[in-house]
Write a structure and sequence with these properties.
CATH topology: Jelly Rolls
Structural class: mainly beta
Distance between the termini: 46 Å
InterPro entries: Cupin_2, RmlC-like_jellyroll, RmlC_Cupin_sf
Number of helices: 0
Order of helices and strands: EEEEEEEEEEE
Number of strands: 11
CATH architecture: Sandwich
Number of domains: 1
Protein name: Cupin domain-containing protein
CATH class: Mainly Beta
Helix content: under 10%
Radius of gyration: 15 Å
CATH superfamily: Jelly Rolls
Shape: globular
Strand order of the largest sheet: 2-1-3-10-5-8
Largest sheet: 6 strands, antiparallel
Length: 130
Amino acid sequence: MTAVDMYTSMFRLGEDGAVLAQERRTTPDLEGWTMMTLHVERDEDAHPEVWEQHTQGDEVTCVLSGGVRVYLRDEADPRDPEGELVAHLGPGSAYVVPRGRWHRLELDGPSDIMAFTRVSGTQLERRTGW
């Protein structure tokens, strides 16, 4: 039996129910469901300057320790690309970002975060003013 370091590895969840642990990477060519755990110390570690959206599935963002804010672009006013809605997450809480919804993270302090999503098709967009 070998333990897996969740901070340097990722888990790929197969359609057949199999789970594969492998070295973590964030390339957009990853097919299927992926689970990653991250330790983030500063906002810069969570890339607050970039909006992202996952076109192939929802994303579950879980906070294991610390606290984060999940920002969603406010789709109610398409004229304001920086209009934002926010969900505050503390230890033991999670938020489901709907498929195709632009989102980003900021930290309340050093945190451990676990995220489940389908990485393939992820799009990134730099925030205005960064």
